[in-house]
Structure formats: C-alpha cells, structure tokens
Amino acid sequence: MTDLGALLDRARGRAVLIVGDLMLDHFVIGRVERISPEAPVPVIQFDHESFRLGGAANVAHNVAALGGTVEIAGVVGSDAEGARLMADLRAVGIGTGSVISDGTRCTTRKLRVVTTRNQQVARIDYESDQAVASEIEQALVARITDAAARADVVLISDYQKGAVTGRTAHAAIAGARAKGVPSLVDPKVPHIDYYAGATIITPNHLEAEAVTLLRIRNAEDARDAAQRFRERARTDSVLITRGEHGMWLLSPDGESDLPAEAREVSDVTGAGDTVIAAMALGLAAGGSLRDAARLANRAAGLAVAHFGPVAISADELRAAL
Questions:
Q1: How many beta carbons lie within 10 A of that of residue 112, not counting itself?
Q2: Boundaries of every domain in the chain
Q3: Would you call 3 a catalytic residue per the annotation?
Q4: N or C: where does the chain have the smaller number of CB atoms within 10 Å of the terminal CB?
Q5: Residue 215: how many CB atoms within 10 A of its CB?
Q6: pLDDT tens by residue, 238-276
Q7: Is the whole-model pTM more than 0.90?
Q8: Which of 152, 273, 291, 315 is catalytic?
Q9: Residues 6 or more apart whose Cβ sits within 8 Å of residue 25
Q10: CATH superfamily, with its number, for domain 4-22+57-98+131-320
C-alpha cells in the first residue's frame, strides 16, 4: 500500500488547473442576547466580520495550502467583491490570469449571519446563476485550453453559477486528455451531460441518488449507484462521498469502500472542496485513484472539524497521516 506521506511530498509543486465558479464567503458574526420586539427573530449585536474564499476558489485555496501550484479559470463581477476575491486569491499564491471580469454580473457572494457560538442565523446569496454570455464563454474556453497545456491535472468545480457550461467543461476535459493528464469533476446534477470523458467524478450521496434514482443506505446501494452514475455521466471512475459513512470508489481497477476519517464534526461546509483538491494533487503526483481517494478521505476528516470553508495545510495533513 502506498505511503500517503510520500504521495503528499511528491504532490508539492504539481500544476493544477481549476475551472469553476468563484465565490466569496462573507461571515457577519455577533452575539444574540434577545429576541426582537418587532418579529420573533434574534437580534444580532455585531462583533466582527470575515471573508473567505468559497466555491472553486476554496478548492484552489486547498490545493495551494497542500503544496500545489494553482491556476484558476472563472468569472468575477466588476465590483468591490470581485476585487477582494482576486486580491485574496493572489495573496495565497493562486494564479488568476485565466479569470475574466464580467461587468454584467455580480461576484457570487454568500453572506452568512452567524452567532459567536457558530450558529448560523441567516444566509443571503448575491449571485447570477445564468450561464455566461457567449463572448465571455469564448474567452474562457481560450484561456482554459491554454492553461490546460501547462497542467499536471485539470479540475472542474461546478457550483452552477454560470462559469461551467458545456463548452467550458469540454475544453477542460479535452485539454487534459490532449496533455495526457487526469481530469476531475465536482458535479451539479443539471449539468450531468457536460462531464463525459472525465477521469473521475465526485458526487455526494444526494447527487448520486438524484442522477441514478437509487436510494443509498449502505455499501451495496453505493456500489449499484456508482455503477449507474458512471454509465450516466460517461466518466472513467466515480467517487461517491457519503458523509459520516465515508466514500465509495468505483474505478477500472476495482472498488473500494473507504470509512470516514473524521474524529470530530463541526461543519461540513466546504468538505467536498477539500476532497477534490486532495484527490487532484494525489493523482497529479502519480498516485492511483485509490491512493488519491485515501488521501482525500483523510483531508476531509480534518476539514469537517472546522467551522465554514477552510484550507487544510500540507503540514496539518502530514501530521494526521
């Protein structure tokens, strides 16, 4: 069995192209001491606010924190949030030359109102979920094709916010195939036909159930769903993430039931981003699908112990290994 620490060491510096929907996660944190006299809602006394990279940007942050070299392709709005998102990406060493600013859209931002005890009170989404306009799509395709030629692995992080279209997904997968490197997809159900030809797709169990019309209650159900999902998506392999039940991997080399690694669960937000980031680096480093999934499973166990989306560092993962 491959030593995962050695695999993580080999992953350092590997070039990862991420194509997807960039988001800004905005947290407004305060104390709750009373209920409003105007309506039965808590009154939040503001304490502080914070911003984190979200969506495909969180995937990129995870890859960078684990030691990879990252280029990201996507769209932001010509607004203050877009400027902040771009600055935050650059601050952690992520290449933004393939990001396009679109003045007709707002930058995707999820504003969460949270108590000082990490209890979420409300969420407001600022977004445009329509597919990007044809001229933006054409520019994205060109940048994806160019960046894929320099990548050791290509990853699609689809949040259905407009950047991942049939053409941009095809460009990413075709670019990986032309370079002879793996391609990975974190999917959205309505886009299932976009991902044909990818090396591996990583639905969660709810997405797998929606696509296959099978209920997943145990490992045998996961096996059946993975087989049907692979046929439907027309990908080489499938990794179904099952929360506290771990993961099920179906690949040309066989099947693996990977038990969950989490010791403590605080918040599952962003855990899927950590999974696919670690999986991509494991494959870029020359690991098998099973070894890359083992690495991803261990990283996910660390991610869910934190509140909100978080980037697991190589040192943190190495210590857990």
A1: 17
A2: 4-22+57-98+131-320
A3: no
A4: N
A5: 10
A6: 999 998 888 999 999 899 998 876 556 555 566 788 899
A7: yes
A8: 273
A9: 51, 52, 53, 54, 58, 109, 110, 112, 308, 309
A10: Ribokinase (3.40.1190.20)
